[in-house]
Design goal:
Layout lengths: L1 H20 L4 H39 L16 H55 L4 H22 L11 E4 H11 L1 H6 L2 E7 L3 E4 L1 H17 L6 E9 L3 E8 L19 H7 L6 H12 L2 E7 L3 E9 L2 H8 L1
Parallel strand pairs: 2-4
Antiparallel strand pairs: 1-3, 4-5, 5-7, 6-7
Length: 330
């Protein structure tokens, strides 16, 4: 504001010089300068008072408020353009902050609900282990199965906790599907033996662009569901890859209890357990939700087909990325 007042004084001097060049009498020039200078001072004092009143009002209101962000809802005498613009900016900042806080609160609430469900589910294998040792009726394979269940649940909660920042933790490279599948099968071998599950991975081959650590977790979650929802007699799991010029599709098939047609569209929804989850055991309903989230982040696709009482087949599609070869050859 002082800059504009300085320009105003300079303009008055220009007018005075103009009058002086036309031989206007000096008393008139002095009177003109005094009048316009006085007018400028009055305007300056007027706006200074309005701004002072506005900022004093804001300061006093802030002191009275317990929740400072509510300042945008208070009447603080924003009766000039700068004040209105300032309050509009504060309102936009406050709105953005509230939306962010609401999003984080929703995330925290969802995580808390998931942890509560997760605790109930992880207590099952722990209780089974305690019961085995108390009764003295346990075998190595039975103990290992329960330990593997606990390990899978711990791994699941770790991936879920880090799911919002996993983009910083992946490394895409060419990966042999056979190596990944072998690692997952080896990890679940005790469950296969105890559940008398026939596993066939002889038709798995091909090379895909993915993060190996993430893919191992994804396949492990899918196989865990196949194991959990298996049939009591002649349980089978088959994995095979279908290779074409533009993509590789990995299929995981089992002859388990299947999924109801009315629920197939919801199996990837957050916390959805379905009728199977309620019948077989306590379930968080988060496994496939996390899988779908990771698949999307990796740029792959996932789909599921099933017929209740007969089979379930999960398909993961890996597209070929020609730009990868171009970049790596540079």
């Amino acid at each position: 504001m002082l800059f504009f007042f300085g320009c105003y004084v300079f303009l008055i001097l220009l007018f005075a010089l103009f009058f002086f060049s036309f031989h206007v009498e000096m008393p008139f020039i002095i009177l003109f300068m005094l009048l316009f200078l006085g007018f400028g001072l009055l305007v300056l004092l007027y706006f200074y008072y309005k701004k002072k009143r506005f900022y004093n009002s804001m300061f006093e209101t802030l002191l009275e408020l317990d929740q400072k962000y509510l300042i945008t809802e208070m009447d603080v005498n924003a009766d000039f353009l700068d004040a209105k613009k300032f309050m509009d900016m504060l309102y936009d900042i406050d709105k953005s902050m509230n939306e962010k806080i609401g999003f984080l609160e929703q995330m925290n609430l969802g995580f808390r609900d998931y942890i509560e469900l997760w605790i109930h589910e992880v207590k099952i294998p722990i209780s089974n282990l305690i019961l085995m040792f108390h009764n003295g009726e346990y075998e190595k394979q039975m103990v290992l199965e329960q330990v593997n269940r606990i390990e899978n649940l711990v791994e699941q909660v770790l991936f879920y906790a880090r799911s919002e920042t996993l983009e910083k933790d992946y490394f895409i490279k060419k990966t042999l599907l056979q190596d990944v599948v072998n690692d997952v099968v080896k990890k679940n071998k005790d469950a296969f033996i105890l559940g008398k599950i026939l596993i066939d991975v002889s038709e798995v081959s091909g090379e895909v662009l993915t993060d190996q650590k993430w893919l191992i977790f994804i396949l492990n979650q899918i196989l865990s569901n196949s194991i959990k929802y298996r049939k009591d007699d002649y349980a089978q799991i088959k994995m095979k890859s279908i290779i074409s010029s533009h993509q590789v599709v990995l299929k995981i098939w089992d002859n388990g209890i299947g999924i109801r047609s009315s629920e197939i569209e919801r199996v990837f929804d957050k916390s959805f357990t379905g009728s199977n989850g309620r019948m077989i055991s306590a379930s968080t309903g988060m496994g496939l939700f996390i899988v779908k989230n990771l698949i999307q982040k990796l740029g792959h696709q996932i789909s599921i087909e099933s017929k209740e009482g007969e089979y379930t087949e999960v398909s993961i599609t890996f597209s070929s990325y020609d730009f990868y070869d171009v970049v790596t050859k540079q």
